[in-house]
């Protein structure tokens, strides 16, 4: 690669809606004049591979990813949304630009490592906005804002100060960059958010969430907020010694407990299973740590956070899991109301079985006292977290039993090719995991409670034993 901009030339992928193509071509031409290596489908698709495979390869090869935000690019059906999810999943530096008037509240919260300021071409003259985009593309490691103060962490931060993040003065590991500038009240457009607290074996560390703002209020120097914690990495040689770590996320007064899931490697599937779709066992790397809900989403949480579904749960106690919900409705809740996503199938099995590849979340042996299953005269779900002894290695509860859980993953047999993660596809069957209260009356049925077991449902199906939980990137807050 050429040595320009103080280092290697930046490979830039531009993702956009076809409605904005002419405007985007103009931006691309101007960026090429600044020696950026621009990739656009209109000029760079070779036709040698299937279209989406070429898109994936191009996204993975880029360093920066420009997400062109407009009313048509942020719809569920938009190909741009599919591309930006892929970029976030592969830890690309996402530079969002707004080219047509767009309601900030409708912009999906797809925050990846290094997400920079949203550059709004509708609020500034073209040349000035372009200059800011060029500056962002030259930024590899954004710097800390000068006004961030550091203080002791012997208690959680309170309130919503726009000036500081309380972080520990020692043993701090910066695990992600959220590039959103804290703006004044006149110019800011803010996602709902809060201060969160990470609970580790040693101390509590508070971290601030992110905001967005219009270009007019930005400073010349890119300003970021670093999420800092004491979160450890996994010692694969001593996985059994892992101590669960949790955090409490406050959604404007409603608190959700999440468990920390470290990165790692495991063998997914089970070659000894009589279920063909669990074979072959294959090595999977969970490259990035993340957060997962300790319990399934409850009826109370779904209602309090404004979840939308065409039908109510069959079992309506506030602490019972939210069931009778489609994949489409569950995915939208995690994305829109929680700022996260459904877990992928790989993430789910890692949460449940971990580096030891346990048969059940609690260990190697079947134990009727550790899960909610069809025992005695049971005719419904139970309150989430009822079986504390059934917790997985990261502290997630009800990974087996109570309700099946939606994953984000499209169902395929492991040895067959296919696109497994497409949030815009609302037709293909999705993988569900974990078994439910309605299974286990005979020994043969109990296979569904194993961590490697797979099942599937169409995304528009509702069942009174099918619910979900959410995951969030390690460097984000709601």
Characterization of this structure:
With 478 residues, the protein is an alpha+beta fold. The chain folds into 3 domains: 3-137, Toll/interleukin-1 receptor homology (TIR) domain (Rossmann fold, 3-Layer(aba) Sandwich); 173-229, no CATH class; 236-473, Alpha-Beta Complex (paralog of FGE (formylglycine-generating enzyme)), CATH 3.90.1580.10. The chain contains 8 helices and 23 strands. The chain has a 6-stranded antiparallel beta sheet, with no helix packed on it. It has a 5-stranded parallel beta sheet with strand order 4-3-5-6-7, with helices on both faces. A 4-stranded mixed beta sheet has the order 21-20-19-22. A hairpin with a 4-residue loop joins strand 10 (196-199) and strand 11. 47% of the residues are buried.
């Amino acid at each position: 690669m050429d040595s320009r901009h103080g280092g290697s030339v930046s490979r830039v992928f531009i993702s956009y809606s076809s409605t904005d193509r002419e405007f985007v071509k103009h931006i691309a031409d101007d960026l090429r004049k600044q020696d950026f290596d621009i990739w656009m489908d209109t000029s760079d698709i070779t036709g040698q591979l299937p279209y989406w495979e070429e898109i994936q390869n191009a996204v993975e090869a880029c360093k920066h990813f420009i997400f062109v935000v407009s009313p048509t690019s942020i719809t569920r059906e938009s190909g741009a949304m599919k591309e930006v999810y892929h970029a976030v999943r592969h830890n690309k530096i996402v530079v969002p630009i707004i080219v047509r008037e767009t309601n900030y509240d409708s912009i999906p919260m797809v925050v990846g490592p290094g997400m920079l300021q949203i550059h709004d071409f509708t609020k500034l003259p073209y040349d000035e906005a372009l200059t800011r985009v060029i500056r962002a593309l030259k930024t590899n490691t954004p710097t800390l804002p000068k006004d961030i103060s550091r203080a002791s962490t012997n208690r959680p931060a309170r309130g919503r100060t726009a000036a500081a993040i309380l972080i520990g003065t020692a043993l701090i590991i910066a695990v992600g960059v959220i590039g959103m500038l804290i703006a004044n009240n006149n110019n800011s457009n803010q996602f709902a958010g809060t201060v969160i607290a990470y609970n580790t074996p040693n101390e509590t560390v508070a971290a601030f969430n992110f905001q967005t703002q219009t270009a007019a209020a930005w400073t010349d120097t890119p300003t970021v907020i670093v999420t800092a914690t004491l979160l450890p990495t996994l010692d694969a040689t001593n996985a059994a010694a892992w101590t669960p770590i949790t955090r409490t996320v406050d959604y404007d007064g409603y608190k959700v407990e999440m468990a920390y899931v470290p990165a790692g490697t495991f063998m997914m599937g089970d070659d000894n299973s009589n279920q063909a779709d669990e074979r072959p066992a294959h090595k999977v790397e969970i490259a990035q740590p993340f957060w997962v809900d300790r319990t399934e989403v409850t009826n109370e949480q779904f209602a309090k956070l404004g979840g939308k579904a065409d039908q109510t749960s069959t079992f309506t106690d506030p602490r019972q899991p939210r069931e009778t919900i489609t994949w489409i409705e569950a995915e939208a809740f995690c994305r829109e109301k929680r700022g996260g996503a459904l877990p992928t199938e790989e993430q789910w099995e890692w949460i449940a079985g971990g580096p030891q590849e346990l048969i059940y979340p609690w260990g190697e042996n079947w134990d009727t006292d550790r899960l909610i299953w069809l025992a005695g005269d049971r005719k419904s779900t139970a309150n989430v977290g009822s079986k504390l002894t059934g917790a997985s290695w990261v502290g997630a509860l009800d990974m087996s039993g109570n309700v099946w859980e939606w994953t984000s993953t499209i169902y395929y047999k492991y040895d067959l090719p296919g696109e497994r993660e497409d949030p815009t596809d609302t037709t293909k069957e999705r993988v569900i995991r974990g078994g439910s209260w309605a299974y286990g009356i005979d020994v043969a049925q109990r296979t569904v409670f194993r961590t490697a077991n797979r099942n599937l449902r169409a995304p528009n199906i509702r069942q009174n034993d099918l619910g979900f939980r959410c995951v969030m990137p390690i460097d984000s807050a709601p």
